Amino acid sequence: MRLYQFDLAPASRRVTSFLKETGIKVPIVQLNVRDGDQFEEPFSSLNPFHCIPFLELENGTTISESVAICRFLEETNNTSKKLFGKNSQERAIIEMWNRRLEIDGYVPLINGIRNKFERYKGKVLPGTRNDLPQVPEIAKRGIESCRILFERLNVHLNTTTNVAGDALSIADITGYEVVQLAIALEMKLDEFEEIKAWHEKLERRFKLDE
Length: 210
What we know:
Layout: E1 2-5, H1 10-22, E2 28-30, H2 43-46, E3 54-56, E4 62-64, H3 66-75, H4 88-116, H5 136-156, H6 170-184, H7 193-208
Parallel strand pairs: 1-2
Antiparallel strand pairs: 1-3, 3-4
Helix pairs in contact: 1-3, 1-6, 4-5, 4-6, 6-7
């Protein structure tokens, strides 16, 4: 089994945080996606989506997408920490929040970054190289979408320790990366006091585990 990563990428950081929290050990191979390693063989055949991270199993199966990788690793390892929940209700609530954070925050902000910064010219769609033009309005819309999400999340975090309950979950890991992306897009966060406190708590936790 091998996990292919690029440590600077938000999607890879989600898996890295998951591994640190659960203590699961997986052999890691770093690919420099900025140099296009993912388009070279054997990586292109292993993962035709040309995105990182992706997990190569011993039987030749490849699993891509960070949350799918984390779910597989949790279900196939005997770890006491269950970041996807310990019963049906916990699993459903965690899934609900993780999806909401992805739909309203993570994806719009990723698209915003790829449409705003020059370094993503020709790379507006993850895992591609093409002539699709950058559209600055997409960055503005991403911030608008995330602001609506943060208004709701800020109120919610006033009633709970973590996003989906008392225990840290995959939803918190996703949410942390949403805030990191918002900061990268220079989104103002001063009005979201609960989110800022929660983000700072997670930042201390993840850095202490490094």
